[in-house]
Amino acid sequence: MLKEGQKAPLFSANDQNGNLVSLKNYTGKKLVLYFYPKDDTPGCTAEACNLRDNYHAFQAKGYEILGVSPDTEKKHIKFIEKYDLPFSLLADTDNKIALDYGVWVEKSMYGRKYMGIARTTFVIDEKGKIETIIDKVDTKEHSAQLL
Asked: Which pLDDT score is estimated for 92?
């Protein structure tokens, strides 16, 4: 399990436009790295829209926002366009980033066990250290949890 104060694991993945994005792109910047299960589902949409609605407040405090899910680049484009999201989403289709951050976990629904994303947000400082970990995300008020 990652802990606050630790160095954030390095990552590289394509964003919705096929551009390779890595943690190194954010050196010198604060980053809100949020992991969510699936594009265009009720909880994930509420979370993304709450971050969108408060995006200027994040920027004013020097934060960039980056979402990560196992969805494809194509699904991310549709999600971004549908909800006018101002930040990029990474396609972690092989779950490598989720595994490195410890958020690819066994889940259970209706007695059925399966692997999936544990909705978690990491705030990473300018030097690449984990400042804050939020593992009990309030999808409708996530910005308030962060700001």
From this structure: 98
Q: Tell the burial category of 134 from Cβ atoms under 10 Å away from its Cβ (0-12, 13-18, 19+).
A: middle
Give the pLDDT score at 109: 84
Of 80, 17, 23, residue with least CA distance to 52: 80
Residue from 33, 44, 103, 146 carrying the catalytic annotation: 44
Q: Is residue 49 flagged as an active site residue?
A: no
In terms of Cβ atoms closer than 10 Å to its own Cβ (0-12, 13-18, 19+), residue 60 is exposed
Percentages (nearest 5) of helix, strand, coil residues in the chain: 30, 35, 40
CATH superfamily, region 12-146? Glutaredoxin (3.40.30.10)
pLDDT of residue 1 exceeding 90:
no
Residue type, 78: K
Residue at token pair 């009990």: 136
